[in-house]
Amino acid sequence: YAHADAVADARAAYNALSALTKPNVTNLDKLIGLEAAIWREGFAALPESPEDIAEYSDELKAAIDALRAAYDQLDPAVQAAVADDEALLCEFEAKIAEFRVEYVNSLLSAISEKDFYRAADVKAIRAAKAAYDELTAEEQSMIAEADLQKLNACLADIRSYYTLTDLGNASYGQNLARENFDYPIGGWVGAGAKLADPMRGTVVFNATG
C-alpha cells in the first residue's frame, strides 16, 4: 500500500492520545478504512477462492499465516470492519489444514506393524511421526485414533533399531557400511550390533567387524 507508513504513523499517534482526547478525533473512520484496505491486500497472494487450491505449498501456507498474524495485530475496530474477509481467511486456513492432515494420513497409511523392519520402514515411521508432530493441535485431532495407535506401536517396535546412518562414525557403523546393507540394526548384542538380513539370516558383528 502506497501510504502504509503514513497510516501506521497515524495509528501510533492516535494510540498515544489519552482516553479523554481520543473522542475529539473526527476522522477515525478514515484511519480504520485505510488499515482495513491495507490488510485486505494480503489476499492478493492467495487464490481467489479456497476451492481454487489444487495442492499444498509452503509458500501458500506462509502467505496465509502472514495474513493471520497481521489480522491479530489489528485494532479491534479494524477487525470488526474486516469480519467477512476474516471469515474467508478461516476458509483458507481450513483448506490448508485439510492438505496437511491428508499428507500425514498418507504417511500413516504407508506404515504397518511388522516382525522385522527394514531401514526404509524405520525411515517411513520416523517421517510419519515428524509430520504428525508438525501439525497443530486442531489438525492432530483430525487424525484417526486407530492410526495414532498404529504409529505409536511402530515407534515402540523400532525403539531398539539403529540404521547404519544412526551409527555415524562409530566403528560399528564404519564396518557395517562397507557391507552396503539397507537394513536397520536391531539393538546391541553384547559387544556387537545385530544386523538382520533376510538373505543371510541374522548376523552379529563384533566391535572389529
Task: Please tell me about this protein's structure.
- With 209 residues, this protein is an alpha+beta fold.
- The protein has helices at residues 4-16, 28-40, 58-72, 76-81, 83-109, 119-134, 137-140, 145-157, 164-167, 171-177, and strands at residues 161-162, 185-189, 192-197, 201-205.
- Strands 1-2-3-4 form a 4-stranded antiparallel β-sheet.
- Strand 2 (185-189) and strand 3 form a beta hairpin.
- It starts with a helix and ends with a strand.
> Roughly how much helix do the residues carry, as a percent range?
55-70%
Q: Care to count the β-strands?
A: 4
Shape: elongated
Strand order of the largest sheet: 1-2-3-4
Please summarize the sheet with the most strands. 4 strands, antiparallel
Q: What's the mean pLDDT score?
A: 82
Beta-strand portion reads 5-15%
Radius of gyration: 27 Å
> Unreliable stretches, pLDDT < 50, 5 or more residues?
167-183, 186-209
Q: Which series of helices and strands comes N to C?
A: HHHHHHHHEHHEEE
The number of helical runs is: 10
As an assembly, this protein is: single chain
What is the rounded distance between the termini? 66 Å
